[in-house]
Amino acid sequence: MYSGEGEHRSSMGEWQENNSRHLSAAMFCLRSRLQELAQELAGDESVGPEAISQGEAAMAEAEANHPRHHLKLGIFDKI
């Protein structure tokens, strides 16, 4: 083992954690915006309820597949 191997593993772990945090923040922003749009479109008769349901289902699937469990649990919905 060369002297920098432990440091490399640590920095990779930090990079992955930071990347995951940024992804979580982006998912939160996206979900918030989608909720705003769904509320705006709910009163627009030109948008079918099926389109809104498909958007909600797509977001739920993205959250379910996200590796960070707090998104799966919907904790950000309470913020």
Oligomer: single chain
Structural domains: how many: 1
Structural class based on helices, strands and sheet pairing: mainly alpha
Would you list the SSEs in sequence order as H and E? HHH
Helix content: over 70%
Can you tell me the overall shape?
Answer: elongated
Q: Number of DSSP strands?
A: 0
Largest sheet: none
Beta percentage is under 5%
- Report the end-to-end length measured between terminal Cα atoms: 45 Å
Mean of the pLDDT scores?
71
> How many individual helices?
3
Radius of gyration over C-alpha positions, nearest whole angstrom: 18 Å
Low-confidence stretches: none
Produce a short descriptive summary.
With 79 residues, the protein is mainly α.
Helices and strands, with pairings:
Layout: H1 5-42, H2 49-64, H3 69-72
Helix pairs in contact: 1-2
Description:
By secondary structure, this protein is mainly α. It has one domain (5-78). The chain is 73% helix and 0% strand. It is built from 3 helices and no strands. The chain has helices at residues 5-42, 49-64, 69-72. It is elongated and about 55 Å long. The model has no long low-confidence stretch (mean pLDDT 71).
Give structural attributes.
79 residues; mainly alpha; 3 helices
